[in-house]
Amino acid sequence: MTTLQDEARRSAIAEYEVLDAPAADLEGLVWLAATLCEVPKAVINIIDDRLQHQVAAFGFAADVCSREDSMCAAVFERAEQVVVADSREDARFAHNPFVAGEIAHVRFYASSPLVTPDGIPIGTLCVFDDEVGELTPDRRQGLALLAEQVVEALELRRVARELRHSNQQLESFAGQIGHDLRNPLTAVAGFIELAATSPELDDAPDAKQSLARADAAAARMHAMISDLLDYARFGGAKPRREPLDLPGLVAAVLDDLGPAVAESGARVSSEVRVDAVGDPTLVRALLQNLVANAIKFTAASGAAPRIDIRASEIDGGCLLTVDDDGPGVPVDQRERVFELMERGRAGVPGLGIGLATCRRIVEAHGGRIGIDDSPLGGARVWATLPR
User: Fold this and answer.
1) Domain Histidine kinase, which positions (predicted)?
2) Which residue, 105, 174, 280, 295, has fewest beta-carbon neighbours within 10 Å?
3) Which residues make Cβ contacts (< 8 Å) with residue 13, sequence separation at least 6?
4) Which helix (H) or strand (E) holds 7?
5) Which long-range CB contacts under 8 A does 258-262 form with residues at least 24 apart?
6) In which domain, by residue range, is 338 found?
């Protein structure tokens, strides 16, 4: 009869997709286990409600056997390390076919459980020998650590699969919204062009200049949408690498945010005259999100924001910082606000996508992003861009 524990175990094993997939990433760990324990054989066993699956083995060919025949099945659910000098003298194993000679002649046996982060035992890292043996305390500890590494390797498999699935969904989403985003923008650009060529504006130079700026902003937005959709489509794995005109990018960002700056009364200063390398479109999107966030959350407190944008050289790259004099971000929230759909403050407009996008852009460049206290009294959001 299948129990709830069996169901949970079967579900956990399925998430790792380890039973029918190549286990090259695990072969080195069983070799290390055998070498550490000075035994000729080691194996990673995954045990479900019916079978024991030897997913990686050293010293013999991996196989599958019934759970009833498995030595590890007798002990792995207790999630404790087991070391037996001579299996013939242990009541749990004395009549097992791997000990009694029907399948093998195991004497020395040691195993450390494989336990998922959710506390579900799914198998063992097992070493054994046809000769009687023992493990020193250091080797017992080493075997336990290697078992933890097996679980880490399985977790990496699971996360990689989820990321592949997430990127597939993101690609599909990007394709679906691409048409809906570009069409209205194309229409806006068309109306701007039509208005700019109207004879009625011949005597209105200020209006013509405003329309020219609007047209330039629409062109930049179109380029940003195209590049960001490509970025989403390919998972952000390969941003372009080229010298960045940081002063030009900051100027473009402040031009795009001109209405927000004017409405909030923000005072924005910048000092970004250093060399940097990266994808211009993505770094512009990064800066635009950071500056827009600083304005939005500082202005929400009722004061005219003070924003300072800086870039400085660091070993191997560039450090970007955006400081504000707003309410800041509590220490216990400084990681959470980078998660998708997490908002820094209730009552402030937004969907909680901006900082998640920033982290995605920075990590695609191989950098890091975080939040500290600002010398202006609010928050400092910093990001590194490696060369």
Assistant:
1) 176-387
2) 105
3) 19, 46, 48, 122
4) helix 4-16
5) 258/213, 260/292, 260/295, 260/296, 261/295
6) 239-387
The number of folded domains in the chain is: 2
**Sign of the torsion angle spanned by Cα atoms 232, 238, 242, 244:** positive
The pLDDT tens digits for 302-348 are 788 899 999 999 888 899 999 999 888 899 888 888 875 555 554 44
Instruction: State the CB neighbour count (10 A cutoff) for residue 67.
Output: 14
Give the span between the Cα atoms of 43 and 339, in whole angstroms: 39
Q: 365, 348, 363: which is closest to 163 by C-alpha?
A: 363
Helix ranges (H only) for 197-302 are 205-233, 246-256, 258-264, 280-299
Q: Where are the beta strands (DSSP E) in the chain?
A: 41-47, 51-58, 64-66, 82-84, 108-115, 121-129, 242-243, 267-271, 277-278, 306-314, 317-324, 369-373, 379-386
**Is there a single domain that holds both residue 130 and residue 258?**
no
- Reduce the DSSP state of residue 104 to 3 states and report it: coil
Query: What is the CATH number for 101?
Result: 3.30.450.40
Residue 72 is encoded by which pair of tokens?
């590890």
Answer yes or no: are the C-beta atoms of 49 and 66 closer than 8 Å. Answer: no
Is this structure's pTM higher than 0.85? no
Residue 123 lies in a domain: yes
Vertex 158 angle, CA 140 and 174, to 5°: 155
For residue 44, give the 3-state DSSP assignment: strand
For residue 356, the domain's CATH number is 3.30.565.10
* Residue 375 CA, distance from chain mean position: 30
Q: Give tens-digit pLDDT for 157-186.
A: 787 777 666 666 666 666 556 655 666 666
Q: And the tokens for 37?
A: 């324990």
Residue 218 domain-assigned?
no
- Picking from 128, 143, 162, the residue at the C-terminal end of a domain is 162
By C-alpha distance, which of 43, 54, 59 is closest to 143?
Answer: 43
